[in-house]
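note to self — DONT lose this again. spent like an hour looking for the file last time. sequence + predicted structure for the chain T wanted, 148 res
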Amino acid sequence: MAQSVTTMLKDGQEYMKTWPLRKELYALFPDCRVVAATRFAIKVMPPLAVLACASIINVMGSEHIPQAIAIGAFFLSMPMQGLLWLGHRSNQTLPPAIQSWYQEIHSKMREQGCAVQRYKGKPKYRELARLLKTAFEDLDKAFTRNWF
């Protein structure tokens, strides 16, 4: 089922807030790098867009306003591209190898008495993000060291 762009952007924002940025996960998932780059782009790209537009108009004159608008739109689209990627990724089902890893972590956390959601037959990346965030927040480092 196709999602609307606004739904994907909202899912991307939620996924970006949920995904734990831990050094152990950087080698395993590209999501960490995309989350970090998107957060950076959200802070930096709007001022860069204004600066680029103002400098183009200042240097080249008002006859280059269409080019300045195009460059500004490009800079402003960068954070949206990251959010769209994250929104799409959050709704993808886990591949079989990661799904078995998810199931193992889920069962071990349940044994430890952590409050985790009920196991789903085909978990998605958003469920993995919630589970990993709960694992890193609630469990001690000795227990999570076994997984990474």
